[in-house]
Design a protein that fits this description.
Length: 208
């Protein structure tokens, strides 16, 4: 039976519990004394993208400058230039990778379309800058963060990504090994055929 004022009474009881409980347990406190105190961001939280690197922040970047994220970005806030060697050949590394966070709407489409698990969403929410132009344009040096950092903010997702990348790496290694074995077998077969032909020619020469 619904008694009149039951909801208000329930709410007041909960308020009283939090008020009195805050004197004995910090878990009961509902107000965080920001910025001195800061709650850890939830694993599912997201702010702006960052680039993941393994070991080395330059050579270890997972990004290969394929520009898929640049093309798919709805507000067009990503700008990428592929790095090239002295002969003009692409090195599959970004020479320039900029994100204008003043334009970015944190839609996460760049993360979803990236086939290399190279770009992920950060949970950092403090982005105040005195310079609203260059200060809000994040370059490769500011976007690059380690895989360990990725694990610290999105542990479940990062573990799944690492497992998938490890399986893909092992599959590629197995395929490369099988290809190398096949080529070695073909080369050996060709060498044997050449040897047989030489032996036959030598035997024929002796017979004559």
């Amino acid at each position: 039976m619904n008694l009149p004022g039951k909801g208000i009474a329930t709410g007041m009881v909960q308020t009283a519990k939090n008020f009195l409980g805050s004197y004995v347990s910090k878990e009961r406190m509902v107000t965080v004394q920001y910025p001195e105190e800061r709650d850890k961001a939830h694993e599912a939280a997201r702010s702006f993208p960052f680039l993941v690197f393994d070991q080395d922040p330059e050579a270890g970047l997972r990004c290969v400058a394929c520009k898929i994220c640049e093309k798919e970005c709805p507000p067009q806030c990503i700008y990428i230039v592929m790095q090239r060697d002295e002969n003009g050949k692409p090195t599959k590394q970004p020479e320039t990778f900029d994100i204008d966070v003043s334009v970015c709407m944190s839609c996460q489409i760049c993360v979803e379309v990236c086939p290399f698990e190279a770009i992920k969403m950060d949970t950092e929410y403090e982005h105040s800058e005195f310079d609203r132009f260059d200060g809000l344009l994040r370059g490769k040096d500011r976007l690059a963060k380690s895989n360990d950092y990725y694990h610290s903010i999105h542990p479940t997702e990062a573990a799944e990504v690492d497992e998938r990348l490890d399986k893909e790496r092992k599959a590629k290694e197995a395929a490369d090994k099988a290809k190398a074995a096949k080529l070695a077998a073909l080369a050996n077969k060709a060498a044997n055929a050449e040897k047989i032909a030489k032996d036959a020619a030598a035997a024929k020469g002796k017979g004559e």
